[in-house]
# Entry
Amino acid sequence: MNQPIRVTVWNEYRHEKNDKQISRIYPDGIHNAIGTHLKYQTDFEVRTATLDEPEHGLTTEVLTDTDVLIWWGHAAHADVQDEVVDRIHERVLNGMGLICLHSAHYSKIFMKLMGTSCSLKWRESGEKERIWVVAPGHPIAKGLDEHFEISHAEMYGEPFDIPEPDTLVFISWFPGGEVFRSGCCFYRGQGKVFYFRPGHETHPIYYDAVVLRVISNAVRWSAPVNGPKPTFGRVQPLESS
Ligand code: ZN
# Structure
């Protein structure tokens, strides 16, 4: 059997401790809601890490042992140390997969990897979200129907100020009339980044079977492939003339 994919689920883990309504939805934190599901996948080895642990639980050792990092943050992006962000950035460029969920569009690591403001429109109204698969042949779309719905979501709307994704897998539609690029793949160095929109903290979205399937698919897609190590700089020709 192949080596398992080593997944680290990172959560800011503040809302669940400070807000009774949110702690009722995610009593063990969003990281454990996602992590518990991922542990059922026999090809994954799962651990969690949170902001208030030393070095946010993302020491060099942990990151070296991580194939795919899943990131959920919202209210405390600024509390993430730049040194840790740089460490994650380097790991992504060297092949680690990164999955940024929902409000992680404003996380330091996502903004650093994108190089743009990553701003968007939003409205907290609990409206329905219909998510269309626009790249049905992509590994992240495996096993999905043509579209799926989330009954109560926070709206995010275009324009979403990101670079053009290398592959756009999902587009969301909202009853208010907005649309949003909600599943975006990017290559950065040897690494792969997936942005996935669903997941506001006041809605039980990380228990949704389809959402969890997308996250599992994204873990498999973004896992390192151990391709050739690139070399740079001056070289001699391979052919003698
Ligand atoms: Zn939100």
Notes: The mean pLDDT is 97.
